[in-house]
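User: For documentation purposes, I need each entry recorded in a consistent format: the amino acid sequence on its own, followed directly by the corresponding structure tokens. There are two entries in this batch. Please keep commentary to a minimum and don't merge the entries.

Assistant: Recorded as requested. Entry 1:
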Amino acid sequence: MPRNAVIKVRVSEEEKAIMEDKALACGCTLSDLVRQRLLNCRLRQTPEEKERLRLLAQAGNNINQLARWANTHEGHIATVEVVLRLEALWLAFTQADKRPREETSCT
């Protein structure tokens, strides 16, 4: 595929030197390094991702509280139910991680 389009980016002399050093260390040209890094870079922290991380942190907090309760009340019969529910949550999280994810647009 011919590469005939040009993208111009302004950087300081120091930034340019750092980028050239990194390209040299990788054994490639500056253009190849920039192209490879930008084309393979996944931007994170989209609004949807931030919300998912917030919900996951909340769920993790709740799971920690349940686990602490189960450890405190080991002899209590309700502990068995809590542990079973924790295992079900763990299974749901691990299965959700295996599902294919939708591609999100970069913002």
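Entry 2:
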Amino acid sequence: MNRRLQADLWLLGLSFIWGSTFVVIKGALDDISPLLLITIRFLFAGAILSPLILTAKRPIGRETLTGGAVLGLLLFAGFWFQTTGMQYTTPSRSAFITGTAVIFTPFLSLVLGIRRPAMTSVFGAALATAGLWLLTSPAEGGSGFGRGETLTLMCAVVFAGHIIALDHYTRRGDKRTIAFLQVATVGVLGILPAVFVEHLWLDRLRFTPTPRLAVAMAILVLLATALALLIQSLVQAWTTPTRAAVIFVMEPVFAALTAWVVEGEVLAGAALAGAVLILAGMIVAEIRPPRGAEPAG
């Protein structure tokens, strides 16, 4: 089995892990408040990933430290929007809306003056927009585009910024050190908001130790964060960015399947059509005009 195929299979496995966590997080939020969940998840994952510093291939300079801080801030904001929004929407909706980050990325690049989006990105965005309208349509008895969907869409925009920043900083700093620093930064950033926002201001800090919460935190810390980020950093270089992006399109599909198996959530009618259009938009947005043969990896 060549390295490219190995990478594709590993990344498909990561898509399954990340897709299944939407249901896991939804269940955990019955026992823990969003900011506290994020803080515990990333502090423990950061501790597990700390040995990555010892394997750094470049000196830990200003670019690496800045990259870790900026990426951590973006990740924290994105997960705050996503986890808070998941209290008001379904796992499937959250997953499909989060997936639109790959569509926002080229347009955010345009705003930042980095590059103009290709026509395929424009077409993909149009498909995804139509899909969002159908996915959240109250015609199927849903709640429409409400608070949860709005927060999750904000999460997608922030994650698009994270994609751009990740590309920028990993070209200039050490990738493994940046992977640790961004995770640790999310955990540290969550401490004060959890205390002052959820506890003192909103009076919504919750923590009920249950077996369900223990299992959820183990999955989120060990599998979905520490192990997943380590595997991604090791194998994604064996394939191409386009192939990786298309594979990650499977994440909301796995989320929908998991929600169906665990919670009996079914996407039907307009919602199903919307999900299909979002997937199509995500794939089309990643299509680029050929510039010669792709490297064999």
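Summary note for entry 2:
Residues 292-297 have pLDDT under 50 and may be disordered.
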